[in-house]
């Protein structure tokens, strides 16, 4: 089975032979854009279906089972419905910002895809500050949410946006600090280097307790950052009807919805990359037969397997826990997670300097 | 009826934010309209606006005969229609001095307790949903479905049963009734443990409910709170104990009292009440007396001239029926004392100074059924 790396190489070589280098580059850019959009919509379809089936399983019911085999085309049908719906703009809304907001949220989610490594040597842009790029671009999405809440001319939306602003800005600190833990251990911000450093063991195993703490904090923080329950205060269905996207309908709503799921995917890829070895297969010490067996599994499957495992955990949170209150949410961050992260950072630094990790 | 003027927009004081929660809102569970004055996220004032589903049931009852008006009351608190019917039947039986046969009394108590459990199960799910946990709702409905099936077999309907009539019950129990209830008892006993594991012991849930919406014993009494809301503040107000009707005086059960006065105390009252109801059903299900299910009554009932009052404990509190009779075939005047209305009146007191999220938790803990408030 050819790996994604081989396919990319074959296409690259063929294009360079057939066309001159400028045209080849342009065609490659188009291919990349199309596959990014394709991945985007596929993720939307798969993750929404997964969420509905997971929630149905937890809620002792069947979930969608009418459209297509086992209800697999339900999301497609829903998308079609959203496409033909009228995109309404409420009276008194700031029309420009109102229409711009969903695109900002979606573009941000798309841009973050760039430095992520989906398989061995399969990466759009391996820039040397990869992790920093992801962390900084992802914080732009809060602007989109604030914009949506402000421009809607709706008090519920405004409250949702206010909550979201406070929440995302706070939880970014913990997420950032737990990312830095791995950066310290690796010594690089480059994603390919971070993955390469885990070839002899994933950081969650190699990094002792500090990496474990960082992993737990990372999962909590990214759940909050993606506005998922139990931290879904920005949407808080039972309190603010739908929070910042109350007034959105049709495709504009769909973009918010899609961006939420793609954001979950992105943070889970990031979690898998940092703590679970990215596309690295699972290896156990010197058991060569086991290790070789694991190597047979394609690297892309490894990454997607780990990612979907993390996504499942985040979905599990959503369908189990009640929602926190806004002050409790901020208390959790500023009184518990942040001090723990800071302390953890010191511990990791000490560990890295003394060379205590494996 | 919706009018544009109902939606309050003006701010009286600079810096205050006025929000209309309802008439259509996911957590008012009906067409309740609350006008909230906010300062940031903090609630300064709550003003409930009622009347969206006012059907003038009390006035309608005046033109219906004593047998007919009972059926209208099923549509008031639709989650405890058995108990509403029962309350009205009690009032008429008081007036006419009708002796209800022991079998009918036992059936009534069984149905009341099943209703109480079904109502509390729905509340448990809805309360959890208000606080943000969506899964408990479906788990609660799984058990509630079994009770509804039991009702359907005997009464023919699942929600507005119209089963209690003056003098007894409308029909005898279905032959499957005892078997079905005996299947339900062990099932629910295992599931209520699950309820506790899923929600009661959850740290987030406890943080969201403990110390929220506190109402003291004195305030609960002065606001006229009854039922689990008052019992959560330590008020002894269970009509089944204070003024026993039917065969409650012969049954062994505890009046559940919690002293916290907060949302969690009210939650615990209802959770423990479900277990008490289950124990009442267990005591009774094997010893339902044989005999008539309905006393012999005249075709047309005429209450003697005078005033009659009876009270009954619904899942939400004390339900009172007050009938003024002029001796005719229809009541001259009728008034229902519904528990939800008095409980709602304490909402402003409970929620002032807390956050929007708390308001939803408090509303969930009051267990409001809007058609009961807005008759």
From the spread of the alpha carbons, the general shape of chain B counts as: globular
The main pleated sheet of chain B reads as:
3 strands, antiparallel
CA-based gyration radius of chain B: 21 Å
Q: Walk across the major sheet of chain A and give the strand order.
A: 1-2
| Alpha-beta content class of chain B | alpha+beta
Radius of gyration of chain A: 21 Å
Beta strands of chain B, count: 8
The secondary-structure element order of chain B is EEEHHHHHEEHHHHHHEEEHHHH
Sheet of most strands of chain A: 2 strands, antiparallel
CATH fold annotation of the largest domain in chain B: Cytochrome-c3 Hydrogenase, chain B
Oligomer: heterodimer
Uncertain segments of chain A are none
Main CATH class of the largest domain in chain B? Mainly Alpha
Measured as a percent range, the helix fraction of chain B is: 40-55%
Detailed description of the structure:
The complex is a heterodimer of chains A (358) and B (375). Chain A is globular and about 65 Å long. Chain A is mainly α and 358 residues long. Chain A has 15 helices and two strands. Helix content of chain A is 70%, strand content 1%. In chain A, helix 3 crosses helix 12. Chain B has two domains: 46 residues, no CATH class; 317 residues, Cytochrome-c3 Hydrogenase, chain B (Orthogonal Bundle), CATH 1.10.645.10. In chain B, the strands form three sheets. Chain B has a three-stranded antiparallel sheet. In chain B, helix 4 packs antiparallel against helix 5 and helix 5 runs antiparallel to helix 6. The mean pLDDT of chain B is 86.
